[in-house]
């Protein structure tokens, strides 16, 4: 076990004591305070061979360099530390929200790139934590392999998406046709190459470490890449399916914090001591109302409501269509007790608003579990934030931890309740079949359509 | 740090284990044992599981030959078992695959528990099994919907389950996730996250493979039998060649493997694959896709064999013609595919074995478990199969069959009328362009 003892013996930068308080720590944010995590130091290190002999080996995040821009610091130099942090967080929040609006304005392609960028950054953050926990910076092979696996999995997923949505574009180019047809085989071959490289790179004294990093990479890929892929699929369904869920989660974060700040009393869960039941429930109701209103406002515009399509003539993405029934005002008769309150018989709503209630409910009730998961993760590995990218807020992953399950839920929701299979994909698969099979299907379809009255038997086209 | 030193102890096998150092355990696990420090208590793990009968029968022979015999007898027993199961049919095969999957999962999770001393977190055992159940439910639900389409449409509860299948699976998984978050105990965060990660990686490895194996099985039993037999043959042949001719070591990870064994095994496996596919392609029960017959309520393997399984003439290239003095040879096209399968089994399959060896060395265990006397755990037997199932599935999907026509019809029927009309018209114009659809046919 000599090598393991060696590895465990690296001195840590800050020792086991409390690291210097971060800029944003005193602010009433969602960050866990340092004091609670210190108590677990001597007990948690019993477990996990690689987790160090003493907690001193788990490097506390080195004192986070203050990334706040100079200009802000000068402007706020007058205020006390607590209010200064509050202002920084507030300003950064507004900056992020405006950036979000800007990207929405710029269109779906930019949004796709943004999602891809966020995914890569989240992956990078989590992998870096893994390196720090396992002191595995000295295994350069592994960094290459992790990024290679990220590339492979992304290639696989984006290849599947591209094949579906860009069917017309793809049919034109010969090389793309080949790539699409054998896509799975090519992706598998690429993955296999990475797997074999991993096996060949196993070094005698570092087996366990390498296996840990391998598993860490795969779980991270599972978390970040599948989510981002599902986000893109939701986006293609219509930008509203991307905007409303994400805004609901953000709104839930903010309103739960505000309610907790003003009315908070009963703690919610031991994992996050700053969260309270009042915040949770208040956040739930405000998010449902917010989702309702946001859905109402966005449902009017074709830009948000129509599925994103790629038009080969214009060579760009267009969102133009006849809005589906979900996005047409309908009259609903109010149940009696609401009738008495509102003194109206019916109300006209978009059906999508009903769906938005489901989405907001999920965002408020289950979304926070993603946040608790990330909190638990941070406590387990004794880090305060995933990274330092955003001053006052931590890393990208800190902002997106609650979104984690939302994307999957929206995707599953859409496929189960909203739309059926993708028509262009069905068509593409039809065209690949054998001629006899195509003929058989053609006859079956014809009979079916005539039965349903969709196709007139006398119509000869 | 007494706990750490004690823990390291448990995984090492005592030297007087029946798997002695000179033994034909191909991975050369023993080399790693010697590098560990002397540890106090030998693990109770390696109990001699060999049945008493065998023990008595072989009591006269020396230890080395006794082990050889035990392994040999068990190998034959497993192969005979394999044949029996094939005879019993696809349903039994499916169940065996499922059991093997559960046992592999159990073995790997148990290793995780041993490594992390997490038996005292009873919640976690429940959660691991719950996640296994969820993921299996999701995968089997998808398969069942595809292959048992008519059966499912008939029964009302099944129809609802299949229509909202993804949503239900996701809800089940979410419940498990929330339970995990709620079960986080203050002093055990890291441990719990490790076990969570361990469980998910194990699921990724074990359940996806077994699911793909079942997919291959449904394609035709030959797609299940030939790959698995090729991997087994490669194991045995490589060992034999290595035993008789082995000299140059192959990889530091498994010192007992040699280049001679590797290459000899490769050629032997390709030849074996060719012969085996020739023999099997003649029988309908192996070659036909497994279908569920609604009337008889059972699985049937009855069909007109596809082109792959009909003898065709191939011209032998000039170089071999002079050797064999034949102009043409009659082969099944499937035999050509079997060459690809055997090549993969011999060249890449062993990487699965190296991966498992590295894993065992990393966690200082000799075998995954003690289920099979002389061989170790189920996972030890299936480590080389690991990538084979995925490869066969990808191979079939890319080169053999196209999309499933009945599934397409099923998807078509769920579309909106205007989409259906659009697809119908596009298909019609496509067929007319290709000349497949003539106006005469159109009027039928």
Automatic annotation (TrEMBL), chain A:
Residues 1-68 are annotated as: Disordered. It is an enzyme of class 2 (transferase). Pfam families: CTP_transf_1 (PF01148). Keywords: Lipid biosynthesis, Lipid metabolism, Membrane, Nucleotidyltransferase, Phospholipid biosynthesis, Phospholipid metabolism, Transferase, Transmembrane, Transmembrane helix. One of its GO terms (molecular function) is nucleotidyltransferase activity. It is a multi-pass membrane protein. It catalyses: 1-octadecanoyl-2-(4Z,7Z,10Z,13Z,16Z,19Z-docosahexaenoyl)-sn-glycero-3-phosphate + CTP + H(+) = 1-octadecanoyl-2-(4Z,7Z,10Z,13Z,16Z,19Z-docosahexaenoyl)-sn-glycero-3-cytidine-5'-diphosphate + diphosphate; 1-octadecanoyl-2-(9Z-octadecenoyl)-sn-glycero-3-phosphate + CTP + H(+) = 1-octadecanoyl-2-(9Z-octadecenoyl)-sn-glycero-3-cytidine-5'-diphosphate + diphosphate; 1-octadecanoyl-2-(9Z,12Z-octadecadienoyl)-sn-glycero-3-phosphate + CTP + H(+) = 1-octadecanoyl-2-(9Z,12Z-octadecadienoyl)-sn-glycero-3-cytidine-5'-diphosphate + diphosphate; 1,2-di-(5Z,8Z,11Z,14Z)-eicosatetraenoyl-sn-glycero-3-phosphate + CTP + H(+) = 1,2-di-(5Z,8Z,11Z,14Z-eicosatetraenoyl)-sn-glycero-3-cytidine-5'-diphosphate + diphosphate. InterPro entries: PC_trans, PC_Trfase_euk. Pathway: Phospholipid metabolism; CDP-diacylglycerol biosynthesis; CDP-diacylglycerol from sn-glycerol 3-phosphate: step 3/3; Lipid metabolism. The chain crosses the membrane at residues 141-158, 178-200, 212-232, 238-264, 276-298, 352-374. Coiled coil: none annotated. Residues 22-56 have a biased composition (Basic and acidic residues). Its EC number is 2.7.7.41. It is found in: Membrane. It comes from the Eukaryota. Catalyzes the conversion of phosphatidic acid (PA) to CDP-diacylglycerol (CDP-DAG), an essential intermediate in the synthesis of phosphatidylglycerol, cardiolipin and phosphatidylinositol. Belongs to the CDS family. This is Phosphatidate cytidylyltransferase.
Automatic annotation (TrEMBL), chain B:
Pfam families: CTP_transf_1. GO terms for molecular function: phosphatidate cytidylyltransferase activity. The keyword Cell inner membrane does not apply. Its EC number is 2.7.7.41. The chain crosses the membrane at residues 68-88, 94-116, 123-140, 167-185, 192-214, 220-246, 258-280, 334-356. This is Phosphatidate cytidylyltransferase. It comes from the Eukaryota. PROSITE patterns: CDS. It is an enzyme of class 2 (transferase). InterPro entries: PC_trans, PC_Trfase_euk. Catalyzes the conversion of phosphatidic acid (PA) to CDP-diacylglycerol (CDP-DAG), an essential intermediate in the synthesis of phosphatidylglycerol, cardiolipin and phosphatidylinositol. GO terms for biological process: CDP-diacylglycerol biosynthetic process; lipid droplet formation. Residues 1-38 have a biased composition (Basic and acidic residues). It catalyses: 1-octadecanoyl-2-(4Z,7Z,10Z,13Z,16Z,19Z-docosahexaenoyl)-sn-glycero-3-phosphate + CTP + H(+) = 1-octadecanoyl-2-(4Z,7Z,10Z,13Z,16Z,19Z-docosahexaenoyl)-sn-glycero-3-cytidine-5'-diphosphate + diphosphate; 1-octadecanoyl-2-(9Z,12Z-octadecadienoyl)-sn-glycero-3-phosphate + CTP + H(+) = 1-octadecanoyl-2-(9Z,12Z-octadecadienoyl)-sn-glycero-3-cytidine-5'-diphosphate + diphosphate; 1,2-di-(9Z,12Z-octadecadienoyl)-sn-glycero-3-phosphate + CTP + H(+) = 1,2-di-(9Z,12Z-octadecadienoyl)-sn-glycero-3-cytidine-5'-diphosphate + diphosphate; a 1,2-diacyl-sn-glycero-3-phosphate + CTP + H(+) = a CDP-1,2-diacyl-sn-glycerol + diphosphate. It is a multi-pass membrane protein. Pathway: Phospholipid metabolism; CDP-diacylglycerol biosynthesis; CDP-diacylglycerol from sn-glycerol 3-phosphate: step 3/3; Lipid metabolism. It is found in: Membrane. Its main location: membrane. Belongs to the CDS family. Residues 1-51 are annotated as: Disordered. The gene is Cds2. GO terms for cellular component: endoplasmic reticulum membrane. Keywords: Lipid biosynthesis, Lipid metabolism, Membrane, Nucleotidyltransferase, Phospholipid biosynthesis, Phospholipid metabolism, Transferase, Transmembrane, Transmembrane helix.
């Amino acid at each position: 076990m000599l090598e393991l003892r060696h590895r465990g013996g690296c001195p840590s930068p800050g020792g086991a004591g409390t690291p210097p308080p971060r800029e944003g720590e005193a602010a009433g944010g969602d960050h866990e305070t340092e004091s609670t995590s210190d108590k677990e130091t001597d007990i948690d290190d019993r477990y996990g061979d690689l987790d160090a002999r003493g907690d001193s080996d788990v490097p506390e995040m080195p004192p986070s360099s203050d990334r706040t821009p100079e200009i802000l610091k000068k402007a706020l130099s007058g205020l006390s530390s607590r209010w200064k942090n509050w202002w920084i967080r507030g300003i950064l929040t507004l900056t992020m929200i405006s950036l979000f609006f800007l990207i929405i304005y710029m269109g779906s392609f930019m949004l796709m790139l943004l999602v891809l960028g966020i995914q890569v950054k989240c992956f990078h953050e989590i992998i870096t934590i893994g390196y720090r926990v396992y002191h595995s910076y000295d295994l350069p092979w592994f960094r290459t392999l992790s990024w290679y696996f990220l590339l492979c999995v992304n290639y696989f997923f984006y290849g599947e998406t591209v094949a579906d949505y860009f069917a017309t574009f793809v049919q034109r180019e010969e090389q793309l046709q080949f790539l699409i047809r054998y896509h799975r085989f090519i992706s598998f071959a690429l993955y296999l190459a990475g797997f074999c490289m991993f096996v060949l790179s196993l070094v005698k004294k570092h087996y366990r470490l390498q296996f840990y990093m391998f598993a860490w990479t795969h779980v991270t890929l599972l978390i970040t890449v599948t989510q981002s892929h599902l986000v893109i699929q939701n986006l293609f369904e219509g930008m509203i399916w991307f905007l409303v869920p994400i805004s609901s989660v953000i709104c839930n974060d903010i309103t739960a914090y505000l309610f907790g700040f003003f009315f908070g009393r009963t703690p919610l869960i031991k994992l996050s001591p700053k969260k309270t039941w009042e915040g949770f429930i208040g956040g739930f109701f405000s998010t449902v109302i917010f989702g309702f209103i946001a859905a109402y406002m966005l449902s009017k515009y074709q830009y948000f409501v129509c599925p994103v399509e790629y038009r080969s003539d214009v060579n760009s993405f267009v969102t133009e269509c006849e809005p589906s029934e979900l996005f047409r005002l309908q009259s609903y008769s109010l149940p009696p007790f609401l009738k008495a309150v509102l003194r109206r018989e019916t109300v006209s709503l978009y059906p999508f608003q009903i769906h938005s209630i489901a989405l907001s409910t999920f965002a408020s009730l289950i979304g926070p579990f993603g946040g608790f998961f990330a909190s638990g993760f941070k406590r387990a590995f004794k880090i305060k934030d995933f990274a330092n990218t955003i001053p006052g807020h931590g890393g990208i992953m800190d902002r997106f931890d609650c979104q984690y399950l939302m994307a999957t839920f929206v995707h599953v929701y859409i496929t189960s309740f909203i739309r059926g299979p993708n028509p262009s994909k069905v068509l593409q698969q039809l065209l690949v079949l054998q001629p006899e099979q195509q003929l058989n299907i053609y006859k079956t379809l014809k009979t079916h359509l005539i039965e349903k009255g969709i196709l007139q038997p006398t119509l000869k086209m | 740090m007494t706990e750490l030193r004690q823990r390291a102890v448990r995984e090492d096998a005592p030297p007087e284990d029946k798997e002695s150092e000179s033994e034909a355990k191909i991975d050369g696990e023993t080399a790693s044992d010697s590098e560990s420090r002397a540890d106090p208590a030998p693990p109770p793990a390696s109990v001699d599981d060999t049945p008493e009968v065998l023990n008595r029968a072989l009591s006269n022979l020396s230890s080395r030959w006794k082990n050889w015999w035990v392994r040999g007898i068990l190998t034959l027993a497993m192969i005979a078992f394999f044949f029996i199961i094939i005879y019993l049919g696809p349903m039994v095969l499916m169940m065996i695959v499922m059991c093997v999957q559960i046992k592999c999962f159990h073995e790997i999770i148990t290793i995780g528990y041993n490594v992390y001393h997490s038996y005292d977190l009873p919640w976690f055992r429940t959660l691991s099994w719950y996640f296994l159940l969820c993921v299996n439910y999701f995968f089997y639900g998808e398969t069942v919907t595809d292959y048992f389409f008519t059966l499912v449409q008939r029964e009302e509860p099944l129809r609802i389950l299949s229509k909202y299948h993804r949503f239900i699976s996701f809800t089940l998984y979410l419940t498990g996730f929330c339970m995990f978050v709620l079960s986080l105990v203050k002093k055990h965060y890291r441990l719990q996250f490790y076990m969570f990660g361990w469980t998910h990686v194990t699921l990724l490895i074990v359940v996806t493979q077994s699911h793909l194996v079942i997919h291959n099985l449904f394609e035709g039993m030959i797609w299940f039998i030939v790959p698995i037999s090729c991997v087994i043959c490669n194991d045995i042949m490589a060992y034999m060649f290595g035993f008789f001719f082995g000299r140059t070591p192959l990889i530091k990870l498994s010192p007992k493997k040699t280049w001679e064994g590797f290459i000899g095994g490769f050629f032997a496996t390709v030849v074996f694959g060719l012969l085996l596919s020739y023999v099997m392609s003649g029988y309908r029960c192996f070659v036909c896709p497994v279908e569920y017959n609604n009337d008889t309520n059972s699985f049937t393997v009855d069909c007109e064999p596809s082109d792959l399984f009909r003898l065709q003439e191939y011209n032998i290239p000039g170089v071999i013609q002079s050797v064999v003095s034949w102009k043409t040879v009659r082969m099944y096209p499937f035999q050509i595919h079997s060459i690809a399968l055997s090549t993969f089994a011999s060249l890449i399959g062993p990487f699965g074995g190296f991966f498992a060896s590295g894993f065992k060395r990393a966690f200082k265990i000799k075998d995954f478990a003690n289920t099979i006397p002389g061989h170790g755990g189920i996972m030890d037997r299936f480590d080389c199969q690991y990538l084979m199932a995925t490869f066969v599935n990808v191979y079939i999907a890319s080169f053999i069959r196209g999309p499933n026509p009945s599934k397409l019809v099923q998807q078509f029927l769920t579309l909106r009328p205007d989409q259906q009309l659009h697809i119908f018209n596009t298909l019609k114009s496509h067929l007319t362009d290709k000349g497949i659809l003539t106006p005469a046919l159109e009027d039928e």
